[in-house]
Amino acid sequence: MVRTNMELSEITDNVACLGMYDLENASYSEEIEKIIKNKLGFDWLSKGDSVFLKVSSNSGNPHPAVTSPIAIGIMVKILKEAGAGDILIGDQAGVQHVRLTKNERKSSTKEILSKNGISTSVSNSKSKLYCFDDFGWNSYFAPRLDFPNHWKNELFVPDILKTVDHIIYLPRLSSHCISGYSSGLKIAVGFLRDDSRLSLHRDGEYFHEKIAELSLIPDIRSKLRCVITIADKALLHFGPDMGKIHALGKVMVIASNNIVQHDYLSAAILNKFNNTYGSFFKYAPKLHFPMSISWNNYLVKSTWGKAERKRTSSISAFALNDLMQNHPSISHYCKLSNYHPSKIDIHVDKNFNEEFKVYLSKFGNSVFNII
Description:
35% of the residues lie in helices and 20% in strands. It is an alpha/beta fold. The longest helix is centred in the last third of the chain and has 18 residues, at 259-276. The protein is globular. The relative contact order is 0.17.
């Protein structure tokens, strides 16, 4: 039986947290540190351990198109105070912006990070930048998958996953025109080598399932400790690089030791925002999610060519407002990890109004229990 970070069968209370903190308050970062330390804890961290913070940096566009630089500074500080050794911040940008193939390289993730603000945050925090494409085509390995999967021996991920002690995902709060939303499960796509990214998009009929399987790679699932979104903006009605930017006015924190709880809560919040605020598209507000097949076909053709486009199967769109079992990546992850929660306890702080809490309490057949 596949188990995941912190052994999902043992996850009970105090692991899913939703907070909102005032940017104008000089101590807001301390408040965020408190919720992460007190609710999640760092019992898994021994002095000197290395930690890889996986960020989302698909493009050179600033947050919310990428992980908030605020998140990096806060998490590095917390980890250093807890005794961490090397702290690596890394990703490989999307294929629309960076390509590393067997024979050539176009642009670089390091260049992308210098544009979106993440590089500056890494430098200020005195952590280390680790861009997968800097280490070449042969710096990836084919992981041994010990569960039924859809990858057909086309999966390659960075060697660093074998040597780092711990992994933390730092996603953003964003819609995504192909995957529906971009959060914890989706962030793992950044680990993929170019040929594996082709496999993901070409096999559209298993696109959502293949995304879920990434975080179950043994070298990831045995080291993934928590998933934490720290965001002061959300990207709505399209994504991953552009869309309607919704300024939250404060800093939102979605934190959990459990990727399922984190992602389903993120999906619920995005659904609320998408339905509340106007579309990025003035004349065709519904152009994004139902068109996921077309967007994926366009990406494959423009990136890998017409021949691969002809081999591409169709992706199924889904609704963010639906039950957990109808979110294909989340439900597939649940199936493989044998984790099927009937209730998810969420610690929601006082800065959320009653209307928002009522919405969450009714979402997904009332799966969220607001504490």
